[in-house]
């Protein structure tokens, strides 16, 4: 059964560099300090470490604890919680997005486009499959940071048909204009809601992040845009608004067909 409304909470914050316990403690404080009821809590990309290229030092030691902690939070808050962190599997490392339901059921998506300017492709393996999450009747497609620059990969199709894009990121302030333009573009071209969570603060490489977390309507209009401070905003999305817009302006019916190889 589809819930007409879906409440989304964005947690935008600074991250402690490569300190998993400190970041988990910080997010636990934020999550259990939320007073408003919500359905989904979204954390940034690599929320336990920052955008680290040292998965061989960290991943195996903390991945089980991190996933178990997300499951505990989801159960205690009775919400779905999602975000990405580093994972080791079959001697390979992945920047992996996890979605954890209140019943501890989880799904994952591996980042498909690795940020070569940060040498991510030298430390992690890329994913090659989309994920479509079904939650409270909503269809949700997750992506990670650099994926935002690749509209073909994010394109909504008849086979990959979603209502909401979730994007988690460590996107630097110096390219904030790109972030703002591309998030709006992905919402417009896919006629979909888009919820994007970016971190704030400066990392160990003196790279600053301005946040700019946002929720965007299918029309491209901003429902919410965060400033450069810690933010935990709760926004309600309405599926009837989405369906009405798609019926009134059915550009999706003229979309080009393509195959990703």
What does this entry look like structurally?
It is a single chain. By secondary structure, the protein is of the alpha/beta class. It has one domain: Nitrilase/N-carbamoyl-D-aminoacid amidohydrolase (4-Layer Sandwich). Helix content is 25%, strand content 30%. It has helices at residues 20-31, 55-77, 151-154, 176-190, 239-248, and strands at 5-12, 40-42, 80-89, 92-100, 106-110, 133-135, 138-144, 164-169, 193-198, 200-202, 208-210, 214-216, 222-225, 231-238. A hairpin with a 2-residue loop joins strand 6 and strand 7. The termini are far apart. The mean pLDDT is 96.
Strand content: 25-35%
CATH architecture: 4-Layer Sandwich
**Side-by-side strand order of the widest sheet:** 5-4-3-2-1-14
CATH topology: Nitrilase/N-carbamoyl-D-aminoacid amidohydrolase
Low-confidence stretches: none
| SSE order | EHEHEEEEEHEHEEEEEEH
Q: Number of DSSP strands?
A: 14
In round numbers, the mean pLDDT is 96
CATH homology superfamily? Carbon-nitrogen hydrolase
Task: Please write the CATH class name.
Answer: Alpha Beta
Number of domains: 1
Shape: globular
N→C terminal distance: 35 Å
Number of helices: 5
Which structural class matches the secondary elements? Answer: alpha/beta
Helix content: 10-25%
**Radius of gyration over alpha carbons?**
17 Å
Please describe the biggest sheet, giving its number of strands, its sense, and whether it closes into a barrel. 6 strands, mixed
